[in-house]
Amino acid sequence: MSGGHDLRHHGDAEVRDGAFVDLAVNVRTGTPPPWLRARLAASLTGLAAYPDDRAARAAVAARHGVPADRVLLTAGAAEAFVLLARALKVARPVVVHPQFTEPEAALLDAGHSVGRVLLDERDGFRLRPAAVPEDADLVLVGNPTNPTSVLHPAADVTALARPGRLLVVDEAFMDAVPGEPESLAGRTDVPGLVVLRSLTKTWGLAGLRIGYVLAAPETVAALAHAQPLWPVSTPALAAALACVEPHALAEAERAAGTAAVDRNHLVAGLTRLAEAAGGAARGPRVVGPARGPFVLVRLAGAEAVRARLRERGFAVRRGDTFPGLGPEWLRIAVRDRATTDRFLAALAEVL
């Protein structure tokens, strides 16, 4: 708990106790695809040997056009947050909220006093660089941000960079944005830039744990020094290698395009429900424009609505565990149109 927010509550907790239609976890459905499962199965013949990450690091580096010494493979992006908190000497870390809460939790666990910058709902949760304290020596921001689904312009994010400051950008959902237009992965001209990427969302590998860090070689070396030996398993390395191949990148881009269409369908349905309820003051109000594979919704009586949806077999993510939000917020994952239509019908009954 921090400031009344349960920073260690995540979407998976919403679906543990029961058979629910999962709109709480932002992992793409129908994954991992058969070709990726086959690659993972083939890697099992090498389990007797200790993991060797050189080929996977080189592949990730080539995917982003950077040298391999700017890449660190991690057991999911969550490990990277712990490494940043423990390995880097910072005195004034600041997290931009609402945002994935694990980075702040990791910083607090490492003994840091963490500052918060709360983005404003009235401003559409847009990033305003001037709101970040000038003396912050580590600034962490998500792009697109979980849970708001806001995609910040790259220029606004890079405006946070300063000599002597680490600028950590969590791009865990950037590959779900068609074309990745505001990504900073591969940029080497931004001082102190650290970009975090996850392969668990698009490829359905949350149970395998694989992600990576892109940063200056000295930052990568400091983080690597804090890792245990062989932190990424052989199957996870096989996944990293497979998921940055050209055919996989093309599949991810197609999936991102499909998700954008499905998200528009969800937003349109929620907007119709708001109109039927007499406007956003009473019905669901969607934060927009949403660009991630989820939407953030403000809804009067959201806690009761969430409970009644569970009775009907649908799990959505509560929003009150995110600093800057309260009990009237819900996060809803984007699913296919048929699933969304069934969810919208259930929500209409509840409302």
UniProtKB/TrEMBL annotation:
InterPro entries the UniProt entry points to: Aminotransferase_I/II_large (IPR004839), NHTrfase_class1_PyrdxlP-BS (IPR004838), PyrdxlP-dep_Trfase (IPR015424), PyrdxlP-dep_Trfase_major (IPR015421), PyrdxlP-dep_Trfase_small (IPR015422)
- Record keywords, A-Z: Aminotransferase, Pyridoxal phosphate, Transferase
GO terms (molecular function) for this protein are: pyridoxal phosphate binding; transaminase activity
Q: Tell me its cofactors.
A: pyridoxal 5'-phosphate
E.C. number: 2.6.1.-
Q: Which is one Pfam family of this protein?
A: Aminotran_1_2
The UniProt record lists the Aminotransferase class I/classII large domain at: 21-347
Enzyme type, top EC level = transferase
Q: Does the keyword Transferase apply?
A: yes
The similarity comment for this entry is: Belongs to the class-I pyridoxal-phosphate-dependent aminotransferase family.
Q: Which PANTHER family match?
A: HISTIDINOL-PHOSPHATE AMINOTRANSFERASE-RELATED, THREONINE-PHOSPHATE DECARBOXYLASE
Q: What is this protein called?
A: Aminotransferase
At the highest ranks, the source species' classification is: Bacteria, Bacillati, Actinomycetota, Actinomycetes, Kitasatosporales
